Amino acid sequence: MHIKPLTHNDSGRFAGEVTGIDLTGHLTADQIADIEAGMDEYAVLVFHDQRFDDDGQLRFSRRFGELEAALGGEMAKPEDRRLKLELADISNLDRDNRMRTADDKVRLNALGNRLWHSDASFRAIPAKYSLLSARVVPGRGGNTEFADMRAAYDALDSGTKAEIEDLITEHSNAYSREVIGFPREDYGVHNQDKLRPVRHRLVRTHPVTGRKSLYLSAHIGTIVGWPVPEARAFIRDLTEHATQRQFVHAHVWRPWDLVIWDNRTTMHRARRYDDLTDVRDMRRTTIRGDSLTAPQQQAA
Predict the structure, then answer these.
(1) CA–CA dist 110, 108 (Å, integer)
(2) Letter string b/e over residues 192-220, b meaning 16 or more CB atoms within 10 A of that residue's CB
């Protein structure tokens, strides 16, 4: 297995292209450890020509830990799901593999993926890795951009680092969807518990490397102890800082790419494409984290 760096910034290497390994076959414990070591260094790894089916992707993903159930799948009626519950359906297709219409609520809700975010930060125990398999890619657009939250933290001045060191933020999927015009009530009474805000540290320390990083996401609605308008303005400032070009890698998808990223040290967003005429079929598995980042209390 060989990793070629794709992006350099002042803090080091970010995103790597991996060759010399077939993820769909039998992998040894040493090979899995090599991938995890690569993730610790690069935070994003790109593997080309990995022809997964759904069961193969699930089997490979479980080598890294327990899988999250996809929130969209949890909120959908079982008869409306296109994929298994552990596979997040990152596509513009309905259950019958037809493209969704312009006013389809699932399509409109998915536009929130175009905001900078960290997967499953709306859970009390947030996600570790995400693994996204490209089955069909559009002819133009639909890239995914990744931002290095370690480098963004390193570039802050010492005063800001001291100010944010112990700050606690509140995350909810409802916050990010409100930004694109979805009121909380649209999720229905039976889903309100899944939208309850959870608390996370704004600065996280990687358990292996010891590096600090910003933990930002469109799911952040406030900072504990701050007035909401001031908190949201400050989080916007930090997000603008963290997504400057020098911290970002843009991945141009090919069919059968598999990209793995570390949600603890990155943010990402999908880019626009013509989703009314061009199919984009991606399937994501998400590895559950192993601990809280902050004590959970009743939301302020």
Answers:
(1) 5
(2) eeebebbbbbbbbeeeeeebbbbbbbbbb
pLDDT tens digits along 62-105: 999 999 988 776 767 777 889 999 999 999 999 999 999 999 99
Collapsed DSSP state (helix, strand, coil) of residue 3: strand
Distance set, CA 187 to CA 74, 182, 184 (Å): 12, 9, 6
| Domain spans of the chain, in order of start | 2-288
By three-state DSSP, how is residue 93 classified? strand
- Asked if residues 145 and 269 have their Cβ atoms less than 8 Å apart, the reply is yes
Instruction: Please classify residue 191 by burial: count the beta carbons closer than 10 Å to its beta carbon, then call 0-12 exposed, 13-18 middle and 19+ buried.
Output: middle
DSSP SS3 for 119: coil
Distance CA 243, CA 148 (A): 8
Q: Which superfamily is assigned to 2-288 in CATH?
A: Clavaminate synthase-like (3.60.130.10)
Which of 262, 11, 221 minimizes the C-alpha distance to 119? 262
| Count of other CB atoms within 10 angstroms of residue 267 | 29
Complete DSSP assignment for 175-201: HHHHHTT--GGGG-GGGGGGG--EEEE
For 22-46, the pLDDT digits (tens) are 999 999 999 999 999 999 999 999 9
Residue with tokens 């994003």: 44
pTM, entire model: 0.94
**Residue 80 per-residue DSSP state:** G
Q: Give me 101's structure tokens.
A: 């219409």
